[in-house]
Write a structure and sequence with these properties.
Blueprint (H helix, E strand, L loop, with lengths): L14 E9 L5 E8 L6 E8 L11 H13 L5
Length: 79
């Protein structure tokens, strides 16, 4: 998995994870992937369909997170 850059607003290390977000009309599992700064609260998240929901290990969803991680890492630092 790619390394996450610090928060672009406060320069603190973000956290990341996945959580169950429900099911679709055809019983597929929806999962929310998120990156969040616990210091200032800024976050990015995406929903995607998973074959099964397993919150750990995070690396299980590496392919699904690549776009989210790239967006987080491309944000400009303030200050």
């Amino acid at each position: 998995m790619k390394e996450l850059k610090p928060c672009p607003f406060c320069n603190m290390k973000p956290i990341y994870g996945v959580k169950y977000a429900g099911t679709t009309s055809n019983d597929a599992t929806k999962v929310t992937a998120m990156i969040q700064c616990k210091n200032c609260g800024v976050e990015m998240k995406i929903d995607f369909i998973a074959l099964e929901y397993k919150p750990v290990p995070f690396e299980r969803y590496t392919d699904a997170f690549e776009n989210l991680i790239n967006k987080w890492n491309k944000r400009k630092m303030t200050g």
